[in-house]
Design goal:
By secondary structure, the chain is an alpha+beta fold. Among the domains are: about 60 residues, MutS, DNA mismatch repair protein, domain I; about 140 residues, Dna Ligase, domain 1. A five-stranded mixed sheet has the order 5-6-1-7-8. It has a four-stranded antiparallel sheet with strand order 9-12-10-11, sandwiched between helices. α4 packs across α5 and α12 packs antiparallel against α13. It starts with about 55 loop residues before the first strand and ends in a 12-residue tail after the last helix. The structure holds magnesium ion (MG).
Amino acid sequence: MHTAKNSGKLSSSYFIPRDASRESHLFKRVRMMASYSFPHHKDHNHKIDINRNRFFIHLDLDAFFAQVEQRDNPKLRGKPVSVGGGKGNRGIVMTASYEARAMGVEIGMSVVDARRLCPDLISVPSYGTKYEAITQNIICHLLELLPEDCVEQYSIDECFLDITPVANDYFQAAKFAWHLKTMIRRIENLQVSIGLSFNKSFAKMATKLNKPDGLFIVREENLDVIHRLPVKKMWGIGHRMEIRLHSLGIRTIGELANSDFHAIHKEFGINGVILRKIARGEDTSGISQHVERVEKSFSHNHTLSDAIYDDSRAMDEIKRMTEYVCRRMRSKDLITDHVALSIRFDDLGYRGNKVRLVHPTNSEKEVFHTAMAIYRKLPQPNSNYKIRTFGISCFELHKVSGYNLDFFNRDHLIPYKQMDFLKDKYGENIIRLGLGNG
Ligand SMILES: [Mg+2]
């Protein structure tokens, strides 16, 4: 996830249509199912049982951007809202509130078309950095509950979790899912839908079966809820594939599951075999770490248990987060071009800004001073206006080797490498840099 160059515009590349006049199918995410996730794809009689005792969760924020805007502005609650259009009738709908969806408004429509269906539609601009800060905060909390390699951020409003380490059976898994829903309501006051199953594909399909604010469990005993669905509801099947499957007489996911292996292989090759495997519940893919995306930005969010307004505590918090993010950049030999700070106040309003650095860096001194400069320009907290969450992110990352190291001459005095070594060995608090006052 990275932050957009223009604030106000949504940054996640998934959501930016190349041509606003085109329709919603552009928004359908295409997922490449890697064949290495299906080592058994050639042996169609192979019985898959390695996933029997695994538990995957797909978590999806309901109508994410619209929900956030309704949360932050009481005047929008209960009303049809679309997020993403500019002023007037321009732009396209990125997310629509459930009230707008009930009137037929769909993601990817132009605001003009949406207004025709729903004359009372309130179109508000999207605020990408705010949504990203929320997503990051949720991910940070998930990482406190699960190992890093069990959390996959799939998009700005969806993630997969492998909860096998914390659940032995569906009872425990469902309990954990409810805990996540409560936690996200507590930390962000947002509702999510959760799908729970023994593999990722079914978990994702399960989410859709109980939305909004739902939890749906697909296990072997109730597999027919999936198998009854039309093939187009299957994750990975687009419009074209649907037509081709129909021409083979395959209309439901169950029919695909029970289809003839050779016919599918002949018609679609490996892709068809994999889709048939998914329909049969034989998706053995695990959590994938989006290395590339992770390295586009490093963010850290922290929600305080007690809101604060004390200047030195705020500074301390920003310092601590800067150290953390810079250390992560250094561990990957990355330097950043941009620093963003976002702060959530007790009224749930977000304030933040981002700054482009003159020279790319991974030194906490510079990142800290930049973050503090942003902080100083924001509304300052007081006893009636306290800070609840801090978020810092560094984006536009580059490999150190690609840059002229002369930039770093100033910083060679700071023994970062040794410091990081000590922190790795003895913990985060063993050594702190005196960074001065921002
Ligand atoms: Mg969503």
